[in-house]
Amino acid sequence: MEYERKVTEEIQYVPKRNSTTPVPLRVHDGLFIRAWHYARRVIKLGISVVFYFCVGTTDKFWGTMGKLRPAICVVLHYHGVRPLERSRFARQMDTLIGLATPIPAGNRELLQPGKRYAVLTFDDGFQNVVENAVPEMVARRIFSTIFVVPSLLGGNPVWDTMGADYIREERLMSAAQLKALPTELITIGSHTATHVWLPSVTEAQAREEISASRESLQRLLHQPIDLFSFPYGGCNDRLIELCREAGYTRVFTIVPRLAFRDPHEFVTGRIEVNPSDWPIEFRLKLLGAYRWLPSILKLKKKLMAFLFPEESLVRMPDATRYDPES
Ligand SMILES: [Zn+2]
């Protein structure tokens, strides 16, 4: 519970005063903005390389003392895999099974010390996932969970795409496609009924979004829906509690933390990945080397609150951003 509270403190991204939606992070075409995104990506990568080697050295030290490091489990979250990205996605899956053991998102078993595990998740339920990602995962027998928005099945994503307008052209899986997925490898979770920014709605609306989406998917698929992911990562303690009351057994955020240290963990963090990630970037994410990010986000939040006390801290973390250039 202490861990969960710590996590949720970090992921309560409050909408701007008098605003009901999160501040949109627009995808700009300007050269300067692109250069800035690229520079930030390189900086994050550099820090992750240093982090990875520091942690690796510590692990080796414990190894010489005859102790195994604790298991490492990382939950990856994708959105779509477009046709041109399929081969890159396939290479990422090869890397995944080479470096880690894929396990289901609903895992309840104790992880073995010294081993690496990976969990694969997809938010939104795009058709391009069925067309391009599912065949590659099935060929490699990799478990995954797809979080869908039941009221929009078969339609287009009509929610706020934070400026990534290309997403609106994508189609979402139909009910028939959902039913045809191989259940031994792919589980379905809820991503609310309408992909709403939950922190902005009333408690009654949030409860409805969380519960009705579960019930509707259960009716459609004739199976329990136990897993939930928050649209845009927007959540707080009360929303997490509503998920518990609705009967979910685990909820997923977008805070890149190691997963399943406790097999009964209710709130699980994830790291965003894209088929366009550089191979070294993907590898390091998979190895948990980006888990320093939450600490930096927390520091940034404190710094912003100190520098601009009049302004509510409104930004969503970088990890939530749809970035077609990354
Ligand atoms: Zn989403």
Task: Briefly summarize what is shown.
With 326 residues, the protein is of the alpha/beta class.
Can you characterise this structure?
The two termini are 35 Å apart. The protein has a single domain, classed as TIM Barrel, CATH 3.20.20. It has helices spanning 2-10, 31-64, 86-99, 127-139, 175-179, 203-221, 237-246, 279-286, 293-307; strands at residues 72-78, 101-102, 116-124, 144-148, 186-190, 227-229, 250-252, 267-268, 271-272. The longest helix is centred in the N-terminal third of the chain and has 34 residues, at 31-64. The strands form 2 sheets. Strands 1, 2, 3, 4, 5 and 9 form a 6-stranded parallel beta sheet that branches. A 3-stranded parallel beta sheet has the order 6-7-8, with helices on one face. Mean pLDDT is 85; it is low at 1-28 and 312-326. Helix 2 packs across helix 8, helix 3 (86-99) packs parallel to helix 8 and helix 6 (203-221) runs parallel beside helix 7. It is 39% helix and 12% strand. It is built from 9 helices and 9 strands. With 326 residues, the protein is an alpha/beta fold. Bound molecules: zinc ion. The site of zinc ion has 5 residues, from strand 3. Zinc ion is lined by residues 123-124, 191, 195, 231.
